[in-house]
Amino acid sequence: MNTMNSTVTSNTETTEAHAVPVQDERPAETIIQEGVTVGSPYADDPKFKLRDVEVFYGESRAIKKISLDIARNEVIAFIGPSGCGKSTFLRCLNRMNDSIDICSVKGELMLDDQNIYDPKRDVVELRARVGMVFQKPNPFPKSIYDNVAYGPRIHGLANRKSDLDDIVEDSLRKAGLWNEVKDRLAATATGMSGGQQQRLCIARAIAVSPEVILMDEPCSALDPIATAKVEELIAEMSESYTIVIVTHSMQQAARVSNRTAYFHLGHLVEVNETDKVFTSPDHELTESYITGRFG
Amino acid sequence: MTDQRSQAEIVRQSLKRRYRKERRFRLYGMTAIAIALLSLVVLFTDIIGKGYTGFIKTTMTLEVVLDGEQMYLDDASDKDQMSMADFQAPIITALQKHFPEVEERKDLRELSRLAGSYASNQIKDLLARQPELLGTTQTMEFLVHDTVSVYVKHADNPAYSIRLSEQQQRWVDELVEKGVVDTGFNDVFFSRGDSREPSNAGILGAIVGSLLTMVVTLVIAFPVGVAAAVYLEEFAPQNKFTDFIEVNINNLAAVPSIIFGLLGLAVFIGVFGLPRSVPVLGGLVLALMTLPTIIISSRAAIKSVPPSIREAAEGIGASKMQVVLHHVVPLAMPGMMTGSIIGMAQALGETAPLLLIGMVAFIVEIPDGFFSSATVLPVQIYLWASSAEQGFVELASAGIMILLSFMITMNALAIWLRKRLERRW
Question: Where are the alpha helices (DSSP H) in B255-278?
């Protein structure tokens, strides 16, 4: 019995050691200054202008005074350890946090010089402009056609059936899915493979012709081949859309993004050109993270 | 090494113990299921054993001479004469033909009691329809008296013969041998309302009453229940007041059904002045009783819709209303319907609240609308089960079989709907 007990204890120790991310001599808090981001967080004529953004879940502060510009038609990747607030921050950009009662957002969040959190702002219109792709592929349990057509239908973007058909075809082509599904548009979407489902979700997002696409770890549930396809797609889409992508895979960030933002415990630590972040980061924490010393 | 071996030993011993525990646990489970199954088998054998005779009717076929002189009737189209005429006489004569030795007045009366009490009405109805048949001889099929029917159906059981005199038993035996008295499928049971005479009583009135009541219940409880569930789940703010409502709904689900009957009596009859014992009233009361069940199961169904679907719809800019109507409600519908059907099955078997609002009345006519007096299946069974005549016992059991088959159908429908409409994501 003794031996068994000791095994259990040692197990717990390992888990704890795993949960504490910092192996640096200095605790992480001391080397981050609140509201200060190293690198180049600002841009000229940005799509999103975000200043001193704070997000609260009840009493706890999940995002601490983040300021960032997101340029037009750039692909920006948010990286950082689990629980660092990158998804929370992403969801502020199209107010997906609204449905969480205890969540409140402070600061200045502008999309094309319009306040996102203006109480008079119509969130439906905002989301039509800022689309979102989620971590887990979440097609509606309807046909492939209806999945893509849903957005245009509710926004009244197509008056005739033929217009709608065009939008669906165009979106599926852009998502690189047309050739695979053109013969079975009436088939149910949930019968597709995970990778196809995720590309369908991307097609669904671009069907309402948004200006920005937010992607919350879009490849974390996909195998490498499907991931490669989605990444290819992101590269193609970057010509016409502004893309914000949250990812856990640093290789992915390195492959698809122009700029990379490193988040840590609710702070935005560093924003730089992707090449720079992965070769010579300005901040020690970024370096520790990308070299795999924690995460 | 020794340490390791002893550890393996400990593990092995504990394994043995664990397996024993597991076996014991499985045994408990199997015993419980076996007891449940056994009770079910006993219940069904008892009901079917008692009730199958309810689906059999006993008739006697007689050559009836429609002799006007005997019936004190010379014009069958004359209503006054018809109401005074003696239609029992031809039946006695016809029976007497089989037993010419019976002459005494007392014996004749006993003989005449073999035919059902509605036999004379049958002759009256025939003559009312076709007055020209007066004076002819007709071969007619009459229902036998309840006591005879029970005696014939349970020929091997002396307990069922006590209501007939020995003389009557002899006559019946002889008539059965001659083929005059015969048994057949009880179409009467399925085509008539209640009656004071068991062999003449049917369940159709109760079935129609139950259906009408259920329609009212469904039409009220389903939309209101689903709407309440959707509102509470999707739109209502989370505060003390909604908590209070939630607690109350859960409490209502546990309130004894007779309380709902009292409520119906006080509010629907007392305040709104609805007529008693009508399907509308029963439906309203049962709807109130079923609402908590429907609300609770609908809320569970709505909760089980994955949040990813909501997010997907919100992410492309669907409004709250669109998210709910286009995605949440359709996906929750199978669960909602299952809950509602189970609630309806519960309502179908409910007796207590209906007793209080007068649906326990003796009603012969088959109800023809939501506002005509009616009774329902469980109440009909209750009425028959509490009647003295032996014939009603088998009718009660037969009624239970009908009720059970309705419930099994409804539950099967619920399962089928769930399987059919369930979508995977």
Answer: 257-263
Structure confidence at residue A5 (pLDDT): 42
User: Within this chain, do residues B290 and B389 fall inside the same structural domain, yes or no?
Assistant: yes
Rounded CA gap, A57 and A91, in Å?
13
Query: How many domains would you assign to chain B?
Result: 3
pTM, full prediction: 0.79
C-alpha triplet B317, B321, B324: angle, nearest 5°: 95
Alpha carbons B378 and B403: distance in angstroms, whole number = 7
Specify the residue for token string 């429908």: B413
How confident is the model over A90-145, as pLDDT tens digits? 999 999 888 888 889 999 999 998 899 988 888 888 998 999 999 899 999 999 99
Are B248 and B134 in the same domain?
Answer: no
CA separation for the pair A281, A271 (Å, rounded): 9
Mark which of B144, B176, B199 sits at the end of a domain: B199
ipTM metric: 0.79
Report how far residue A103's alpha carbon sits from residue A89's, in angstroms, rounded to the nearest whole number.
12
| d(C-alpha B165, C-alpha B109), whole Å | 12
B45 shares contact with chain A (CB less than 8 Å): no
pLDDT in tens, B53-102: 889 989 888 888 888 888 888 777 787 888 888 888 888 888 888 888 88
Which residues, given as ranges, of chain B have pLDDT below 50? 425
Task: Test A94 with B315 for CB contact under 8 angstroms.
Answer: yes
Sign of CA dihedral B18, B24, B28, B33: positive
- Any idea where the domains of chain A sit in the sequence? 35-140+206-290
- Calpha distance A175→B116 (Å, rounded): 82
Taking CA atoms, A16 is separated from A5, A13, A174, A214, A291, in Å, by: 17, 5, 45, 33, 21
Write the CA distances from B106 to B111, B135, B343, integer angstroms.
Answer: 9, 27, 57
Residues sharing a CB contact under 8 Å with residue B145, sequence separation 6 or more, in sequence order: B113, B114, B115, B116, B117, B199
Is the minimum CB–CB distance between B322 and chain A shorter than 8 Å? yes
Residue numbers of the domain that contains B7:
2-52
Cβ–Cβ of B308/A136 closer than 8 Å? yes
Contacts with B, A 189-218, CB within 8 Å = 190, 201, 204-205, 207-208
Give kind and range of the element (H or E) at residue A268. strand A267-273
Show the tokens assigned to B310.
């909501």
The nearest alpha carbon in chain B to A200 belongs to: B312
End-to-end, the C-alpha distance of chain A in Å comes to: 35
Residues B166 and B252 in one domain: no
Pick the residue of B13, B17, B316, B425 with the most A CBs within 10 A to test the interface with A by mutation: B316
Q: What is the CATH number of the domain that holds B323?
A: 1.10.3720.10
CB within 8 Å: A151 and B317: yes
* B41/B117 same-domain check: no
Answer yes or no: do B309 and B382 share one domain.
Answer: yes
| CATH number given to A35-140+206-290 | 3.40.50.300
Contact A30, A262 (CB under 8 A): no
Q: Check residue B186 and give left, alpha or beta (phi > 0: left; psi -120 to 50: alpha).
A: beta
